User: What shape does this take?
Amino acid sequence: MTKGAVALVLHAHLPYVRSTQPGSLEEDWFFQALIECYLPLLGVLEHNDDDAATAPKITIGLSPTLLSLLDDDELKKRFPNWLEARLQLLPEAEPSLRHAAVHLAWTIERHRQSWLDCNGDLIGRFARLQQRGVVDLLTCGATHGYLPLLRQNPEAIRGQLRTAVREHQRLIGERPLGIWLPECAYYEGLDRWMRDAGLRYAVLDGHGLLHAHPRPRYGVYAPICSRNGVAFFGRDSDATLPVWSAKDGYPGDPQYREFHRDLGWDLPLEKLEPLGLKEPRPLGLKLHRVTDHTLSLDQKQPYAPDIAAERIRQHAQHYLRGRRQQLEQLAATMQINPLLVAPFDAELFGHWWFEGPAFLNELFKQGPTEGIQFTRLRDVLQTAGQLQLCDPCPSSWGQGGFHNYWLNETNAWVVSEWDRAGEAMVRRCSRGVGREQDLDLLRQAARELLLAQSSDWSFILRAGTTTDLARNRIKRHLERFWLLMAAIDDNESLPHGWLEEVQMDDRLFPLIQPLDWAMVHRETMQR
Assistant: This one.
């Protein structure tokens, strides 16, 4: 076995896209993630855990908003019907796509049975994998707020982190020890609030370690410890680029499934009307292969699952041999065993890259033969001994390690809105309320503030995709927040039935504590 190890880290997250309307775009986001990513991922991990010849180890961050969606009974009831509607559309594909359609139908049926077998309890399956030592489950910011842009009110940071820890413990049954910082974004002093929430380690982009003070002796190949007692791991670009890049990495192989060609675009509108759709949109039914990056979508060729399966085996072997070469070279110059940290968005595996879960399966299957050992972040810290004391550098996993994807001309307007709402929340929570009914209003105001802070909406505004949806989400949550605050501060009456409707829409974080937003004494911040 090669000295050192590989730590695969997946960030499993969706914003709180719960919708009361069946067939909505938000519902599609969640259900596609279930069938394409999370059910296949669980299947791979459970299968390899049952195989004595493999030793699957992986770290997965489950965001609190994703956990809330996974725990939603109404969404669980709607998911089988959503699947059935898509299975009924697959026979409508043209004859040249029949083999790909049959394969996709078989895949959906297999994962649907997995769903039915566990009664939709994916959270319980993740928790059991942690209990068996396969998975290390991390938390995230409560609503994936971009923490460096919320620091104007440090209590907002505390609210994001404490709410996340509390929700993770409620649903998983254990307090999280580590966190996937939203967008891997770090600023000076954030480790104090991580420690305050009981969080002991996180992953940063390579910039966060390579520009730490002092410079770490082993770069990104060993964790460091901040002066506030929090450990940080650094992303290794060599271990991530072959998997992450659609252009230069494995996902762009001509034999793999094409993401952008979808049956929802190809079928006539009358075939989509039974789904309640008034215009074409992606349905998660993709039957073509990449073919050639220079070709237009209408020139893509039918997907051939058997050929893709062979490419998966070849790419897994190529990846493992590349990591073995890395580890051997590092071990020759390091006095400790090297660590390669490879963090990814979980939805890369299955949603963006259909073959991704099968690739993970091959990594675990071929790992022992190729001399590669996988590990979890918590296991590294339990055996690492004393870590080098370094202060991480402010960074994110955006381009160049900077924050500008979440702070630019398309989305900067929201930062002042967050600051103003956060300041009002701190004032009210520091003063408290005199009536039980006001406490209920304050709890809902905290939920609305958190939901408005989601970095996903800023990301979408910058990406230029579903910008109207993102802008409306931010404004809706802020409007609800201010109405709730006015009802508390000025004793203004809320419209009849309005509160019940809001609580039905945004019914996450049942244990939320407004005291988490009470004013922080400045001397506390300096510790």
